[in-house]
Each structure stands twice: as structure tokens, then as C-alpha cells.
């Protein structure tokens, strides 16, 4: 496993696109806060809080999916699976290592990005206001992002296509679920859709969820597709003929 | 040594490889031949465990590759010239594979030196020529100092110098005891490079031979020039020996009546004709390959033809 991890770290760090993605991911967290300070309008008086940072993280979320789908599918199409199978004893190790390295990279970018955003917020005219629930919200958002990244990675493994692995989750999040929530007949199932579930979980973390709402239904709604796709991806990686 | 035993591979209803058995012995270059779509690449992928065989086994040094603890030391392979990320440098590509195989980084430099690519180590692979990519692929295959080498069309896109380099490299590898399996469409190349040949068509084995045996066994023709070709031709036709007049002399196909060059020269002596030149007309591998694959195709079509 150590070999697989080392190889995946090198695979990640030796392409130019990683640096570009790192800049975009970090920039998506800090950039909007800096911009808000520059175009400050007293009409919207009030300190920066966790939900403001959450708006930045929603850009990070989309970029993280783009990164995961692109990196995984591009590497598969560049023969990474075949080269791993020819050099490692276990087939599963290369995929698990790749997912772990992607998670670590994204978590690192998130921590740096949010850290810089918090620093930038200190220079915001109305300052920064972070409650303990705000920290929980930011931690929960990272977990949500990593679960969506897992789905994008699994789709890349299953389809070996950059387009599908990037477009499918983003279309689902930003189009299909939004449309579904506008259809009154689908009211019963929309809470069980993963993107809605993600927001319910985040609302819980921030303490803005309706009273008495349990954390488990949205957690299950998000975990089931993430784990299902991850399992299918791992199964395909181990059993299927390599690309 | 690579041993393939009754290997079959099916994709849905399509059988790509069927009951294929052959060996790739140590210390020799085995050419793997077959027309397009014969199943060569699929066989090689199954052989390396990249595709799972439907039935049959492949043993490399006595074990399936999946059971080897350090597969990179058992077999090195290049099956696809696109096994690179174009944005990565040659050195980074090799150090990544070295890390995956648990090998030290200095091996990357050693193999770059072995394939004469050290100058391009820090250049992105997207800027490499096809020949350089072939060399880099070979470098990756050699990282673990493997005992067996499997290459799919390694001569593709190489210039004459590159081909000469690759030829010398593979010969050295075989001479130092490695089992080398090379597929190629360049039959002339295989004729001079390979020690053994495995020929397949429609996923089935047509045969495996030593190149010399195959070509000599089929070398049943001689080119004869005399001071009276016309008379010799008439005499041979009278004996029902197949003979063709060519601009460069008479092409005589040996049979039971005239089985060899000695009998042919005796016949000329009996006719009181002076031989000015007598040479074997060797069968080219290309002719033999076409004969084998044509026969296989005819059999295949014959099988499919409905009975009347």
C-alpha cells in the first residue's frame, strides 16, 4: 500500500494541472472574501460568518468534482491502471491509494483556502464572526465535498470518461435536483436526493435545520449513493479488464 | 519463460482467442504474428493479467503473474504507445512507475541511460517523437530488470536507426537469457530478428516454429541458370517437374522426381548442359505467413459456408 500511495502522490504532483487546480481551489475559498472586502457596500453591513464562507466552498465543491473526474479519468486513459497492475500485487491498492491521495490533496487545499479566507476576513471592514457551529459547518462541508468527490472518482473509474465523470455529478447537483425540487409531486423524494441531503446536513451543522429534524435521513441519502458508487467503482477496477 | 495453455477470451458472444497454447522460452526472441484482428493484443493482455482470460492459464516463470510478489521483476511490458500522460516528464513517468514497483529512483536514471534518453529526461512526454516514446515505454518495462519482456509492435514508428537500436537491444536481452515476446506486422523484421515464431489467426494458433526450420522446411525451390535453359525446361517438364522460366533463370520446385539440387545438377549433366548458377530460392516469411493465414481464412470461411 505504501508503494501505491507513493506512486499516486508522484502521479498527482508531476503534472502541471495539479498546480492549476490547487490555485483555483484555494482561490475559490479566499477570492470571494477578498472581493467582498474590495467592493464593500455598507448596505450589507455585518461580519463575515460561516455561511459566507460556505458560499465560497460551494465553488470549491464544483471545482473539486472537476478535479477528481479529470484527474482520475485522464490518468486511467494514460495507462495508469495497466501500469499499476503490472507493478503491484493487489489491484485494489492503486484505486484506494488514488482516492486517498485525492482526498488528502483536496483537504489540504480546503484547509489552506479556508485558512487564507479567515485571514482575509479579518481585514473585512465588519470583521469575522465564527461560532463553534460555524467550525462544525466548515468541517461538515469538507466531508460533503469529499463524498461528492468519491462519486466523481467512481464515475471516472466506471466510465473512463472525463466528460461523464465531471458532467454527471455537476448536472445532477445543479440541474436535475433543482428541477426536481420545483415539481410538487416529487416533494416526498426530494429530501432523499443527495444534493438536497447535503444541504440539510450542512443546515444541521450550522443549527439552521427545522427543529426535531434527525441527522440520519440526509446522512443516509448522501452516504448510500457515495458508498454505492465507490463500491461499484472498486469492483470494476478489481474485476474488469484494464483500459 | 512464458507458458500459455488453452487460453480463451470471449467478449460477450464474440470469441477473440480460442484454445491458444504456446511457449516463450528463455534466451530467445519469439515473434508473435497474425493479421489485424487475429487476437495478438488480446492474448498479450491476458498474458499479463490485464484482461482476465475466459478459460486457460498463463504461467510466467511457473506462476500466474497475479501470484508473483514483485511482478515488475518478472515481466516488463509495453502494449500501448499511449501509456503516458503527455504533461509529465519522462523522468517523472519513470519515477512514478518505480515507486509503484517499490524500486529506487536511481533505476529511472539507469533505464533512461540504457535507452539513450537521458537528454530528454526533463522534457514533457507530449513533446517526444514516436521513437522516443517507444524507447521510454521500453525503459518503463525494464525498470524492474524483468526476466521476461513482452512488447506489442515495438518497431512501429521507429526510424532505421531506431529499429537497429531496438533490434540490437532485443538481441542482447535474449542473449542474456531473457524470454522476449514481440508482436509485429513487419514480417521482414521478424524474419531477421526472431528465433521462434508463433502465428495465430482468428484467435487460433496456426503453429509455432523455429524461424530457420520454418523457412528451410518450405525452401523447396531453386533458381537455375544454364547455357541452355530452354532444353533443361523441356526436359524437366517431360519429367513433370514444376518449372517456371523467369528473366533471371529457371525456378524449379523440387518434387519426388527431382528432390534436391544434387539430382537437378545430375539431370543437367545427363543433358550435357552446363550449369552457370544454382541457388536456393528461399521462401520469404511474408509468403509463408500469407500461405498460413490464407489457409486459415479459407478453413474459417469453409466452415461458415452453408451446405448445399
UniProtKB/TrEMBL annotation, chain B:
- Sorted alphabetically, which PROSITE patterns does this protein's record hold? ABC_TRANSPORTER_1 (PS00211), ABC_TRANSPORTER_2 (PS50893)
The GO terms describing molecular function are: ATP binding; ATP hydrolysis activity
Q: Which InterPro entries does the annotation name? A: AAA+_ATPase, ABC_transporter-like_ATP-bd, ABC_transporter-like_CS, P-loop_NTPase
Under Gene3D superfamilies, the record lists: P-loop containing nucleotide triphosphate hydrolases (3.40.50.300)
Q: Which UniProt keywords apply?
A: ATP-binding, Nucleotide-binding, Plasmid, Transport
Please tell me whether the keyword Nucleotide-binding is annotated for this protein.
yes
State the source organism's domain of life: Bacteria
Show the coiled coil region(s): none
| Residues in ABC transporter domain copies | 2-227
Per the record, the similarity remark reads: Belongs to the ABC transporter superfamily.
Q: What is this protein called?
A: ABC transporter domain-containing protein
Look up and give the organism this protein is from.
Corynebacterium sp. L2-79-05
Source taxonomy lineage? Bacteria, Bacillati, Actinomycetota, Actinomycetes, Mycobacteriales
Amino acid at each position: 500500500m505504501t508503494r501505491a500511495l507513493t506512486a499516486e502522490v508522484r502521479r498527482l504532483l508531476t503534472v502541471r494541472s495539479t498546480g492549476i487546480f490547487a490555485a483555483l481551489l484555494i482561490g475559490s475559498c479566499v477570492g470571494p472574501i477578498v472581493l467582498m472586502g474590495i467592493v464593500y457596500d455598507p448596505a450589507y453591513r455585518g461580519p463575515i460568518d460561516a455561511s459566507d464562507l460556505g458560499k465560497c466552498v460551494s465553488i470549491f465543491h464544483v471545482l473539486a468534482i472537476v478535479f477528481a473526474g479529470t484527474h482520475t479519468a485522464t490518468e486511467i486513459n494514460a495507462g495508469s491502471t495497466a501500469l499499476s497492475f503490472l507493478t503491484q500485487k493487489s489491484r485494489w491498492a492503486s484505486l484506494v491509494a488514488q482516492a486517498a491521495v485525492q482526498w488528502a490533496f483536496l483537504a489540504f487545499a480546503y484547509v489552506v483556502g479556508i485558512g487564507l479566507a479567515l485571514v482575509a476576513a479579518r481585514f473585512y471592514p465588519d470583521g469575522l464572526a465564527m461560532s463553534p457551529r460555524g467550525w462544525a459547518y466548515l468541517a461538515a462541508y469538507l466531508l460533503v465535498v469529499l463524498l461528492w468527490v468519491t462519486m466523481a472518482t467512481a464515475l471516472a473509474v466506471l466510465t473512463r470518461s472525463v466528460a461523464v465523470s465531471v458532467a454527471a455529478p455537476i448536472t445532477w447537483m445543479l440541474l436535475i435536483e433543482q428541477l426536481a425540487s420545483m415539481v410538487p409531486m416529487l416533494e416526498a423524494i426530494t429530501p432523499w436526493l443527495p444534493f438536497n441531503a447535503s444541504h440539510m446536513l450542512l443546515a444541521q451543522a450550522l443549527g439552521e435545520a427545522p427543529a426535531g429534524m434527525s441527522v440520519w435521513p440526509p446522512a443516509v441519502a448522501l452516504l448510500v449513493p457515495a458508498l454505492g458508487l465507490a463500491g461499484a467503482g472498486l469492483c470494476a477496477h478489481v474485476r474488469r479488464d484494464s483500459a | 519463460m512464458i507458458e500459455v495453455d488453452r487460453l480463451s477470451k470471449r467478449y460477450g458472444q464474440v470469441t477473440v482467442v480460442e484454445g491458444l497454447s504456446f511457449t516463450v522460452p528463455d534466451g530467445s526472441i519469439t515473434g508473435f504474428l497474425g493479421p489485424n484482428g487475429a487476437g495478438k493484443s488480446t492474448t498479450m493482455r491476458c498474458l499479463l493479467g490485464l484482461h482476465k482470460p475466459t478459460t486457460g492459464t498463463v504461467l510466467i516463470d511457473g506462476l500466474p503473474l497475479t501470484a508473483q510478489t514483485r511482478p515488475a521483476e518478472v515481466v516488463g511490458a509495453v502494449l500501448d504507445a499511449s501509456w503516458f500522460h503527455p504533461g509529465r516528464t519522462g523522468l517523472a513517468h519513470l519515477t512514478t512507475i518505480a515507486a509503484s514497483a517499490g524500486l529506487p529512483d536511481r533505476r529511472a536514471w539507469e533505464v533512461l541511460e540504457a535507452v539513450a534518453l537521458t537528454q530528454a529526461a526533463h522534457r514533457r512526454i507530449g513533446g517526444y517523437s514516436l521513437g522516443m516514446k517507444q524507447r521510454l515505454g521500453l525503459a518503463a518495462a525494464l525498470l524492474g530488470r524483468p526476466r521476461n519482456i513482452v512488447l506489442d509492435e515495438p518497431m512501429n514508428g521507429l526510424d532505421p536507426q531506431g529499429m537497429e537500436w531496438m533490434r540490437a537491444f532485443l538481441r542482447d536481452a535474449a542473449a542474456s537469457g531473457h524470454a522476449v515476446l514481440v508482436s509485429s506486422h513487419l514480417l521482414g523484421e521478424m524474419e531477421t530478428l526472431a528465433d521462434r515464431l508463433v502465428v495465430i489467426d482468428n484467435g487460433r494458433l496456426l503453429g509455432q516454429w523455429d524461424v530457420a526450420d520454418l523457412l528451410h522446411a518450405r525452401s523447396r525451390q531453386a533458381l537455375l541458370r544454364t547455357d541452355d535453359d530452354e532444353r533443361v525446361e523441356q526436359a524437366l517438364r517431360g519429367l513433370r517437374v514444376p518449372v517456371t522460366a523467369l528473366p533471371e533463370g529457371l525456378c524449379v520446385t523440387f518434387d519426388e522426381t527431382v528432390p534436391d539440387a544434387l539430382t537437378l545438377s545430375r539431370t543437367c549433366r545427363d543433358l550435357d548442359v552446363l550449369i552457370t548458377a544454382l541457388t536456393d530460392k528461399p521462401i520469404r516469411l511474408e509468403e509463408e505467413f500469407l500461405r498460413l493465414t490464407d489457409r486459415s481464412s479459407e478453413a474459417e470461411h469453409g466452415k461458415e459456408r452453408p451446405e448445399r
